[in-house]
Amino acid sequence: MRAPVSDLPIMLVEAGILAGTTTILDRISLVLGPGAPTVLIGPNGAGKTTLLRVAMGLIPVSRGRVTWGGREAVPPTHRAIMFQRPVMLRRSTAGNVRYALKAANIFRADWEQRTTELLKLVGLEDLGSRPARRLSGGEQQRLALARALARDPTVLFLDEPAASLDPAATKAIEDIVRAIAARGVKVVMTTHDLGQARRIGGEVVLLHRGRIVEKAAANDFFATPKTEEARKFIVGELLV
User: Fold this and answer.
1) Whether the predicted pLDDT of 1 surpasses 50
2) pTM, rounded to two decimals
């Protein structure tokens, strides 16, 4: 029997993104492999979201290359992404999940069971009939996570999943991310919250001006940063 095809590792080799004469990402070399979550941090405009979209396969690189499991130009059937401000469809909470299952080509006969499982995973099992647009901000983020998981991805990209949420809602999101990672899903996420990066990250990647400044295991990154930029960023100084 053949081993199942995987999109991991995702490898970026000297990858660059240009917008006219402006460099958005500059010679990014990074390997995203199985294991604990990878957290991308850095100031606004550092290139975090662009890097996330490149790794997802939504943006072609201007130079260099990207491979998924050693292959190029791979359809994102095993990858999913949750954007920072996901749009809620004009239907119920459960209806949003069913729509995502349909889009992922899941057999209709499995929709009810999968919807129940996904809503339970994100703690919304009692809100299935509520209109999605009437959920709180934290509940909507959890629903967006459920929708992203509908295709049963092996890699999940999250762009600031807890941005603007209160501490309780943030903890709920972080608990779900840990549960997802414990199931073997590779999580790659951006955050502005250094505390969140400490709590969730297996490895931390610091970007500045479109370049990777430092990459290390989370404990090492925060305990013994190797670059001046990392030391400044950790203590809250501005990177300009």
Assistant:
1) no
2) 0.94
